[in-house]
Amino acid sequence: MTTTKQSKYRIDWVDFAKGITIILVVQMHVTAGIEASLGMQSTVMHAIVEFFRAFRMPLFFLVAGLFLHRSIGKPWMEYLDKKVVHFAYFYFLWIAVTFVIKYPLTDPASGHGFSVDRLLWSVIQPFGTLWFIYMLAVFYMVTRLLNKWLPMPAVMAIGVALYLWQPNPEIAFLPDGHSMLIKEFGWRYVFFLSGFYGYELWFRLAERAGKYPVIALSAFTAFAFGNLIFLSNSFPQNHPLALLNSYAGAITTIGICAVLARYGTGQFLSFVGKHSLFIYISFFVPNAFLRTALVKLQLTPPIDLFILLVLVVSVVLPILAYHLLKDTPLAFFYTRPKSFGLGRKKESPLALRIKSL
User: How many folded domains does the chain comprise?
Assistant: First the structure.
């Protein structure tokens, strides 16, 4: 395999993994929203949510850390621009969009919705589905600092310890009475670190899985049975077996993605993966509007079909919106303007001080 083909192959399986995980994340939120609206539980869609719960977000964060090795040593201002400011821009922009949409529907007496207080708290308390974008910026910043000061085994030990220890996120004065930042950091950071430090291992795994599809499919099948057994037992999320099960799910799913990428099957997953950021930041808009409209108009199909319909729309519309807006004055919803970057201007004294850290 030539270097060019190998590079393309590696990128392709990553896009497949992104596509699968973003669809699973949207499906989870759509299912939860519709089940709450109808006051009943779905059959197939709820089972899918439960089956993939163990490794849906772990794989999402593992993939997010895969290419960090390319930029971890970049100058501080360039790193902050691409890894912190980039995600902060989309987080605060879409928090504002969320506020504009949800505030008129907020009932102050019930405590539900999105109040002005909630908007202000969103600086330190990630809101709704956008917590993932917030955590990415935090992970990139923390990893840059830890990687500079500590050896890899020590940083990985911190990640594993946080997962197993699960720091208490309860902080009474915060909305909901707990810190989303503390909770999700403890649960997810070890997988992000695994993507960063183990990127060569993951790429080698994907290459071998692509060459031996029968083994890759057999491994996922074996995991599927093991996962069902695991789910039948009520292990706490921070149990060592839960950690191992998450890794097993991530490993075998990467194998499936590698097989799909190598044989060019299911290219729509790769296409979705290339647009995963756009879907993640805005799928809540079509999800909420379509769900609410159909429920109020009493046009709801059987619940599993209802979820599937809203899922497809919630994945497709953000992609369409991106392509429709990308060459218009509204492109800023999906593309960060240069004016919101740190740029390459002459470094200020503050920038030079940051760079020296």
Answer: 1
